[in-house]
Write a structure and sequence with these properties.
Two copies of one chain form a homodimer. With 223 residues, chain A is α/β, with parallel strands linked by helices. Chain A is 43% helix and 17% strand. The longest helix of chain A has 19 residues. The interface between A and B is large, with 88 and 90 residues.
């Protein structure tokens, strides 16, 4: 079995964004240095991350941009369609249903489910919001393997159990709840507080390195 | 300068959630093993992560739950209030404004800004949505140091430049755009595609370990 460095996996979408920007601007080749600079990462880290995808560059030329984009997409599984159900069509759920960034990943939210009658029957983009009690039978019939959980914390375990009943194998949990699930379910916890905490700690380190009066009156854009 | 393991930093909010659950249930002490089991992590990883916060357990007794919660909160800076402005009060911005999970982190979104007249003047929870052209002067006057960016990709760089003009030092960017910013700005990119990709790769690994005839259709993981 191959063991992945998931910190590296999480950086690949960033490189993908940079490469797409360069592709749009008409560039065909890119060096690791250029990619690293634009992504604001160290070159050896970028090099190692990209090696993981199996892409190979040419000395003095760099990577073919279209080829590297393809390698990243294949590695991340973005070139396979991935049908998902979303449960909890509140603010966060609706934001995910409308999120344009998923289009490049193959994620296809085929339906959303809720218990709130004021939401049931409406749509976000072209995704229908259906009653939760239809979820299990629909998931089994449509062979949906991915579930996105955007319900309030106190309902998350109960709805996750329902997703398991629906034979859903991968759960992407946006609630702060710590779910207990059977071992054959892959659970990804998306904790918005984690990103925030990383920002604050990195800012603390950076502000210690560059101790500037944080609220100086003169121009802040001193580089 | 202290160097942080940011993968570990990102796991601390998970432990915090587990500990709060145990605290609510009336427990006072917890072993690393118990914490690891509930968090679905390996014990040595949890032990090492917790050491980072400076917390110390007692052999055969474990950690004092209230004390450990406090250590994590102090380490992550959650015990300091952190005033932030949010720009882009669309679906994702509104979801963040309403997100209950931030209450434990000290994050306080004091105002949101938009250019859409239909949004300006309204509120999400008790947060006012104000016209974007008020942002710079208000940020300077209120000494707001954190900016949350939830605008469409094609506006992200322009709005980020405005946040820099507003003397904001930390930018939490939810757009897939790769921002170019002065080096004294701390930038955290929150890429929803990263979490999704991690889920899919981990599922690919797990489904290979437990091959079931169910729906392990695509296998994006090259092993």
């Amino acid at each position: 079995m191959r063991v992945f460095n998931f910190s590296a996996v999480r950086r690949l979408p960033l490189y993908h964004s940079v490469l797409r920007d360069y592709q749009r601007s008409g560039l065909q080749q890119i060096s690791t240095q250029m990619l690293a600079k634009k992504a604001n990462m160290a070159t050896p880290v970028v090099k190692k991350d990209i090696e993981m995808t199996g892409a190979t560059g040419k000395t003095g030329v760099g990577y073919d941009i279209v080829g590297l984009i393809g390698k990243i997409e294949t590695f991340l599984g973005w070139d396979n369609p991935n049908d998902a159900f979303l449960v909890g069509a509140g603010r966060l759920g609706s934001a995910l249903m409308a999120y344009e960034g998923f289009s490049r990943t193959g994620l296809n939210i085929v339906a959303a489910f809720d218990i709130d009658p004021s939401r049931i029957g409406s749509k976000v983009r072209d995704i229908n919001i259906l009653p939760l009690d239809k979820m299990v039978s629909l998931a089994k019939r449509m062979h949906v393997a991915t579930g996105i959980l955007t319900v309030p914390e106190n309902q998350a375990q109960q709805v996750a159990d329902l997703l398991v009943t629906a034979e859903i194998k991968r759960i992407w949990n946006f609630s702060p709840c710590v779910l207990q699930l059977p071992p054959d379910i892959t659970l990804q916890r998306e904790d918005l507080c984690a990103g925030l905490s990383e920002l604050m700690l990195r800012a603390g380190v950076q502000e210690k390195q560059n101790p500037k009066p944080l609220f100086s009156v003169e121009s802040p854009v001193v580089s």
